[in-house]
Design brief:
388 residues, alpha/beta, Rossmann fold, Dehydroquinate synthase-like, alpha domain, six-stranded parallel β-sheet, 8 strands, 11% strand, globular, binds 5,6-dihydroxy-NADP, binds zinc ion
Length: 388
Amino acid sequence: MLGNFSYKNATKLYFGDDSLKFLNDELPKYGNTVQLIYGGGSIKKNGVYDAVKEILCANGKTVVEDGGVMPNPTVEKLYEGVKIARENKVDLLLAVGGGSCCDYAKAVSVSVNCDEDPWDKYYIRFEEPDCKIVPVGCILTMAGTGSEMNGGSVITNHKEKLKIGHVFGEEVMPKFSILNPRFTMSLPKRQMVAGIYDIFNHICEQYFSGEDNNVSDYIAEALMKSVIRNSLVAVDDTQDYEARSNIMWAATWALNTLISRGKTTDWMVHMLGHAVSAYTDATHGMTLAAVSLPYYRYIMPYGLSRFVRFAEEVWGVCPQGKSDEQVAEAGLAAMEEWMKKLGLSLNIGELGATPDMIDGIAHATEILDGGYKVLNIEEIKQILTESL
Ligand code: NZQ
Ligand code: ZN
């Protein structure tokens, strides 16, 4: 393991088919007023809303409704959520939904008691909260982002054509998260596979960095293999509980700060994907899928030995009679086949991006330096053009 680090994860998890009942154990720890945060209505159709509401009532809570959180939550919605929280002096922000609801709850949590504009403070200036933070709890209905056990909060500003994530510290992570794989069963298949690719790419973003082979790399490979195996089961039978439960647990561990220990981490697929999403409002996991292959093929020569390891360990490529480049390419080809089997979007044109957007998307892409190649703007344009 390279480097010095500390490790703590502040979120308590309840996992499994019976996990919702543990909301009864958590609620007494917080004050009376709960802001119930949810999305566009899926939880009203699948029964989760009623089940949660019943427990809130049984615990004597005053419930303040905050529905309508959209996928890729916007800064305008954030302002609205802050207003609701202030007016009702809420004690707990309870997000019931996917990563968007959970991310949004965290953004509200750091903004309620802050006088400054949260977009400027947290997403442009990247300052840390210096105000009282309202606690967040999460009941997850979609596996993918890992938001249930991390401090990440991604907000979209359509006017500025920017989608930006701030990774807050442990004080902003959900105090508890309830993970019932059954709640994810009503997801449309397209959302399910987008979530699966999001999980896989979170692991890649951490794995494709660094020169040593450390514990995090081995854990990452195990997680990737589990995601591949279970995704193939789930795509054939979306109601396979075992597969869906493994996917949900892998999602949490893919981005809960564990496998980034000892890694510089890349995150350029996410930076490209977020910029595409800022222009198209496309589904997060699909934007990642659409830029991944051109990106990885481009950086492969700069991190060749890691791509060889990826091919052999994750995809079972036999190196015999092949050059390192051929082994590495065979790994990416196997990944491409898997992505096709899942039915992922493999180009950004399908997601609404057009050639005239390339320049703008490239400039909206934040350039990070933790991966195998620090891209310049021309290289970003080239990768985006190949992704069209
Ligand atoms: O809004 P509703 O009606 O609930 O429908 C949602 C939404 O349309 C639907 N859905 C969720 N659970 C469902 C369901 N439909 C039926 N049954 C269920 N059980 O799925 C759609 C997408 O939901 P969303 O929450 O937007 O998806 P996801 O979990 O992928 O979250 C995406 C957001 O998280 C950010 C993304 O950028 C994006 O803004 N991310 C957050 C990260 C973090 N906190 O660390 C990291 C990620 O890389 C990502 O950037
Ligand atoms: Zn992601």
